[in-house]
Design a protein that fits this description.
This protein is mainly alpha-helical. It has two domains: 65 residues, Arc Repressor Mutant, subunit A, CATH 1.10.10.10; 41 residues, no CATH class. It has five helices and two strands; from the N terminus they run H-H-H-E-E-H-H. A two-stranded antiparallel ribbon has the order 1-2. Helix 1 crosses helix 3 and helix 2 crosses helix 3. It is globular, with a radius of gyration of 17 Å. 19% of the residues are buried.
Length: 123
């Protein structure tokens, strides 16, 4: 696993770590089942605080990119299927909420597109 931090980046270090591990897991650079370094070991390697790496790992686990198996460690999960399932579930929740709020299909789609644009193309 290779992680390079950019101290000049406006992106916080925990997010740089999270993004790079997630991308390596998605691309197959970190195959499913790969054991990640401990939080302390990775923090020491990167010159970061333990809490910074711990936050990256927590967010990766929340996104189902990794799974923690207690004392056995943290491992790369099967990202593709899990990510698609979670995205479909979130989309379903959004659709039901939009209907409860009285939004029509076009209004709900426009709101979703606007939100995605804001995430993918921040100003």
């Amino acid at each position: 696993m290779e992680i390079t931090l950019d101290p000049q980046s406006p992106v916080p270090p925990f997010e740089q770590v999270r993004e790079q591990i997630a991308e390596q897991a998605r691309s197959g650079g970190l195959p499913v089942g790969t054991k990640l370094p401990t939080v302390r070991a990775l923090a020491a390697d990167l010159g970061l605080a333990v809490n910074t790496v711990a936050r990256a790992y927590r967010e990766l686990e929340a996104d189902a990119v990794v799974e923690t198996r207690g004392r056995n460690g943290t491992f790369v999960a099967a990202v593709g299927d899990t990510a698609r399932r979670e995205a479909a579930a979130a989309a379903g929740e959004y659709a039901r909420r939009a209907v409860r709020l009285g939004l029509g299909r076009d209004e709900a789609l426009a709101a979703a597109v606007t939100a995605l644009d804001a995430v993918y193309n921040p100003r």
